[in-house]
Fold this sequence. Notes:
There is one protein chain. The longest helix has 17 residues, at about 90-110. The protein is mainly α and about 120 residues long. The protein has helices at about 5-15, 20-30, 35-45, 75-85, 90-110, and strands at about 50-55, 55-60. The protein has a two-stranded antiparallel sheet. β1 and β2 (about 55-60) form a beta hairpin. It comes from Rhodobacter capsulatus (strain ATCC BAA-309 / NBRC 16581 / SB1003).
Amino acid sequence: MTRNERFEQILMLLRDGELLRARDVAARLGVSERTIWRDMAKLVDYGVPIEGERGVGYILRRPVALPPLVLTQDEMAALHHLLRLAGAHADTRIAAGARTLAAKIRAVMPPDPEEDTPL
């Protein structure tokens, strides 16, 4: 799991408005408490309204809007595969739709240095 994916997961966990201990978040995400402490500090630095401290817990004081679409690497791989299949479809509308959709996604996604064949 990348750091950005972990940030997204932390925000999803905090959305319920409950106090969360770093120990519990760390266990759910498979990282150390220290990693969660650093992540919480970084999220606060980014302006996320998280209140709390080490040893007590963390809470999100007001809702935070996440980007409309955040994809994991596995989700991107699946999307890439499906778009390639759709691009080869016999129905020209589906094939054309797959090509334009891939172009729109490429335009808003950061480049993936590990991806050798872009969408």
